[in-house]
Specification:
Layout: H1 2-15, H2 23-29, H3 38-49, H4 57-72, H5 77-87, H6 93-117, E1 122-128, H7 137-148, E2 151-152, E3 157-159, E4 162-164, H8 174-177, E5 183-188
Antiparallel strand pairs: 1-2, 1-5, 3-4
Length: 191
């Protein structure tokens, strides 16, 4: 919930052309606007429980506990991966890192998209590839395509033949979403 709230707030701030303001400063400035609806809470539960990584329920509960602790203690993805590895001895270091990054990115990208939807300025979204050495060709192609032709907020991106609402969307195959470092950006309406 905390990760979703922060991602949604960031999405709204970006949509309004503002730099990211940390949560503790937003509250004092009255900029804490993002609201989590009951439908969003249900969707978050669905994202977690039906993870594209297809983790068994016991392992998922252990991961959820570590993610919650990581949020409370403000861990980095690497710190989360290290704690997952220590608490779930069956995970290799690379598998723990893959899970930590994939799950964090999924909620962050979905939350940002929901933040865009809660502003009056954003009608379109684009795909933003990180263009790092291990970027997927399909993700680089999506960046180029949707930079030239952004799509409506509720329309899916077509990436490697799959419909994705955002990078990390669990509707995509593991090969399309695991360790994806892409993001979305809002296309702000000019008035």
């Amino acid at each position: 919930m905390t990760a979703l709230k922060e991602a949604g707030d960031a999405g709204m701030q970006i949509s309004e052309g503002k730099l990211y303001v940390p949560p503790n400063e937003r509250i004092f400035r009255g900029e804490d606007k993002f609201r989590i609806t009951p439908e969003m809470r249900a969707e978050l539960d669905n994202l977690i429980l039906n993870s594209g990584t297809k983790i068994n329920r016991t392992t998922l509960e252990k991961i959820a506990a570590q993610v919650q602790l990581g949020i409370e203690e403000n861990w980095t993805v690497e710190e989360l991966a290290k704690n997952l590895r220590e608490k779930l001895l069956e995970l290799s270091p690379s598998h723990a890192r893959l899970i930590a990054h994939t799950e964090a990115a999924k909620v962050e990208n979905w939350g940002q998209l929901e933040g865009y939807k809660q502003t009056e300025f954003v009608e379109l979204k684009g795909w933003l590839c990180s263009f790092v050495p291990n970027s997927r060709q399909a993700h680089m192609d999506a960046d180029r395509k949707y930079s030239d032709d952004p799509i409506a907020l509720n329309d899916p991106f077509i990436v490697d033949g799959e419909e994705l609402q955002h990078p990390g969307d669990p509707a995509g195959s593991a090969g399309n979403v695991c360790e994806c470092k892409c993001s979305t950006y809002p296309e702000v309406r000019s008035e």
